[in-house]
Every structure is written in C-alpha cells, then in structure tokens.
Amino acid sequence: MSEERAPSPAVARTLTVLETLVAADEDLTLTALAQKANIPLATCASIVYTLEQRDYATRRIVGRSHFWRPTLRLYGLATQLVRKVDLSTVAQREMRELADQLGMPVHIGVLTGASVVYVAKAAMPGFIQFDTYPGKVAPFNLTALGKAIAACLPEEELKPLLSQMAKGEGPRAHLATKASFVAELADVRKKGYALEDEEEQADIACVAAAFFDSSGHVGGAVGVTGFAKDLTARRRREAQVGLIELAALISRRLGAPQD
C-alpha cells in the first residue's frame, strides 16, 4: 500500500467548521457559518448537528434563528494533550544527561509576549547553582533562549517584539537597533543556535537552540547557562552540538514535521 493516502473531504470539512466556530468572535447562524467555512449549507448543517450531538458545539435559539458556538469540550481535549506533552518532562532524562556532561544547568523556555518564561530545568551537579528556575521571566532579547525562539518566528510575530527590546545590566549589554537585532537573528538561523554573553548580567553566558511543535511553529528553546569564563572554546562547541541534538529530539517528540 502506498504511504501517501488521499485526504478525506468529509473530515477536512468537519475540521473547517470547527475551526471557523472557534475563530469567530460571536455566535454564528448556520448560513453565516456555511459562508465563512465555504461549505454548502446542507453539508454544514449535517456537520454542526453532529458536533452538537458529540458536545463540541451548542446553539442558542432566538425566534426562528439558531446561533452556533463551540463548547469547552475542546478545552478538555487540549488539557489532556498538554498533560501528555508537558515540556517539563518531554526530555527530562536527556536534559539531565546534558547537564551532567557539561556541568551546567539546562533549561527549556517559551515565549510569552516579549518575555521568555523558564518552564523546565535540569540543575547542574555540585553545590554552585545558578539563579534560574521554572517560572523565571526574562526579556526575550537578553537571553539565548529568547534569541533562538525569535529567530524562528514568522515576520508578523517578530515585528511587534522589536519595539519591546530591553537593555541588560551586564558589561556587554547594549540596546540593539531593530536592524542589528534582525541581522543577529539571521545569523542565529544560519548557525542553528543563539548566544548571550554577559548581556543580561555580568559573568553569565548562555547558548540555546530552538525546537518546533506539531504545526512546525517554533515551540520554545532549550539552552545552557554557565559562567562566561567557562563557556568558551571547547565547552561552548560541546554545548552547541548537544543543544542542537536535544532540540531536534524535543521537536520529534512534539510531532514536528521532519525534513
């Protein structure tokens, strides 16, 4: 049997109706829903009544008009999925191994607005620990995690962030222009990893690589943090290789499309 199968028009139309309901800012009549979804009225009616029976859609009746909207049944499915694809556990063992190998903490960060939020950490062995922890927030342009993510954003998502760049407190901090930061991000995309060297704070350097979700959109980044004096030459190259491999592993586990 061929690995390539023809898509199902019925399934495609059902998903289109569901996506249209979710994207709408208000409840939709059947006619409006069919028009927005570009689906014949009779077909749309059959789909939306089935969604109602399965509790994915509900309707509000006003006179002779029926207004449709999605239910929170979808939220329940998404919640189950999030629990199964928890970024704090998706590569916990591999993060731990890389932290032990490098003697540096490994983190996963995601972009929220113009900030990077640390959502997972594998601490380094020993008594010395860095002030990084799940829940920590940092400006996206001052961390390797944020730069790695920003480098992979579509232009329409990156553009509003460029006016929200912060200046760090480290000795090498500088408030980049939009043009210079975009040029830096182009270099990140080319190399496959991002660097931050004493920009956010003194004596601290970071390396990070982006990973992708099932839609092919950048989902976050995985990185290491170390003392700037240690994260040089061989150690930095070792970190770069390890992080690129780890980011690729996380992408696969999140179902990212493979080239």
Low-confidence stretches: none
Order of strands across the biggest sheet? 6-5-4-9-8-7
Q: Given the helix and strand composition, which structural class is it?
A: alpha+beta
Note the total helix count. Answer: 9
Number of strands: 9
Overview of the structural elements:
Helix 1 (9-23) packs across helix 2, helix 1 (9-23) crosses helix 3 (41-53) and helix 2 (30-37) packs across helix 3 (41-53). The strands form two sheets. This protein has a six-stranded antiparallel β-sheet. Strands 1-3-2 form a three-stranded antiparallel β-sheet. The model has no long low-confidence stretch (mean pLDDT 88). The chain has helices at 9-23, 30-37, 41-53, 73-84, 92-102, 144-150, 155-158, 178-191, 233-253, and strands at 28-29, 57-62, 65-70, 106-112, 115-122, 137-139, 194-197, 204-212, 218-227. The protein is built from nine helices and nine strands. It starts with 8 loop residues before the first helix and ends in a 6-residue tail after the last helix. Helices cover 41% and strands 21% of the residues. The longest helix is centred in the C-terminal third of the chain and has 21 residues, at 233-253. By secondary structure, it is an alpha+beta fold.
